[in-house]
Amino acid sequence: MAKSVRKHKEQNKQHKKLDKIDVIVVKAVKPASKQYSKALKNNKKIAELVEHAKNKNKTIVVFTTLQDEAIAKIVYSFVAQHCSAIYAGTVLGCQSFNIIYTAIKKSKLRFDDCIFLFVGSGTFHIKMFVDALLNYTARKQKQFTLPKLHVYSIQASLQALGKITLQHHNDIAKQLLKQKKAKFVRFVYATNIGLIISVKPGQFMLQNMQLDRVLRALQRLQRINKKVYFFLADNITEAELINFGLDFYVALACPGVNLDYANLANLDELLLFLHLLEIDKLKNKKAKFKTKKIKTRIGNCKQVNKQNCKQKSKTK
Question: Which residues are CB-neighbours of 203 under 8 A, at least 6 positions away?
């Protein structure tokens, strides 16, 4: 009995220690968030951005990654106090555009009405969002156009409160648009196309809705006399692709692969290129039809004029 009582007392002491530690951790986080919000207030560039959004009736759309979610929520709460704001949520992998698009649609806004603010490190997620937005606008406008885009990022951490940097990323859109146009030209003149199917877990796209999209794309490629060669791969590198000597490649893998290669597109880009190519062909057909109509009209007019001239000569 004495031993069991001692064990019970020791367990209670351990539990009390754990409770104290838990309380200390919670108290340590709160001052950091307050300091971070103060640092945001003191930052001139962030203050200018908020004022610009307020004056131009723009909505700031905040998105982030899982690791920076705590900071993003502080940024969102600060921005929402001064102007219209939306918290789009956390970006998972390469699907940043889908998350932002659904958030904007729910709020019944347009892309032109928004300023996009990414809270996190690096530019990969920003590039993925801008690249997908360029595809979206090109499909809507039926041509490659540079949208009126305002993309910013805050790269900071709770440990480095004094180093909150706000960066503007509109140059990314111009660079990606140039790459996309050059890629489209390569695709148009390509005859042999390699379709790379990733066998990595989580990147296998030949299932459900993605399979239907792939099959439709293959049918459309056959219509325009493109030869398709299939590859199964785990890692995609430029050195390996050069060995096969094909004109163009399409990767059925992570959508971000297309950012690294000049002659490689993802599935969304392929469908966009096919769409634009079909539109160009329709335009050319319409133009040819119009020229034929004009030529026939001119020919008919000439015949009528000749007949009139003959009749006049006979009467004389």
Answer: 253, 254
